Amino acid sequence: MTAKATIETQGDFLRVTITGVIRTIEEIAEYSRQYRLEANRLALRRVLIDYRKASFMMDYHDLLELAEYATSQGFQLHGLRIAALCSPEGVDLHRKYETIAHNRSIAYRAFTDSAEAEEWLARS
């Protein structure tokens, strides 16, 4: 099964729930385009992406390419603040991406606790 994204408004942020297996950067690019358009339409700058029902078939090189894609799409310029909600088993991959993204001025942070993720989003 490939990845599927469900996007809904939750207060003053978007909640994006990803399910399935993510194998390519193109899959991430597709759902990121969707939530960026929706965030822009609703004038929201906070996004919570729930990855707890998703798995990644990606390595560190893929994460670097993903960050380059995000930079080329202007994530750092749009003012988006992205909280990634991960399973304990998957958080290491997201923490690696968090570091890579931070080095490109992209506001992305990985969490395993939903309340902590929402608190971080609310502080912006």
Beta-strand fraction estimate? 25-35%
Catalogue the unreliable spans: none
**SSE-based structural type:** alpha/beta
Rg, Å, rounded: 13 Å
The tally of strands reads 5
Q: SSE order, as H and E?
A: EEHEHHEHEH
Shape: globular
Distance between the termini: 35 Å
User: What is the strand arrangement across the widest sheet?
Assistant: 1-2-3-4-5
Number of helices: 5
What would you say this structure looks like, in words?
- With 124 residues, the chain is α/β, with parallel strands linked by helices.
- The protein is 45% helix and 31% strand.
- The chain contains five helices and five strands.
- A five-stranded mixed beta sheet has the order 1-2-3-4-5, sandwiched between helices.
- β2, α1 (25-42) and β3 (46-56) form a beta-alpha-beta unit.
- The longest helix is centred in the first third of the chain and has 18 residues, at 25-42.
- It is globular, with a radius of gyration of 13 Å.
- It starts with a strand and ends with a helix.
- The model has no long low-confidence stretch (mean pLDDT 91).
Provide a quick synopsis of the model.
By secondary structure, the chain is α/β, with parallel strands linked by helices. Helix content is 45%, strand content 31%.
Observed structural traits:
single chain, 5-stranded mixed β-sheet, alpha/beta
SSE map:
Layout: E1 4-10, E2 13-22, H1 25-42, E3 46-56, H2 60-72, H3 75-78, E4 81-85, H4 91-102, E5 107-111, H5 114-122
Parallel strand pairs: 2-3, 3-4, 4-5
Antiparallel strand pairs: 1-2
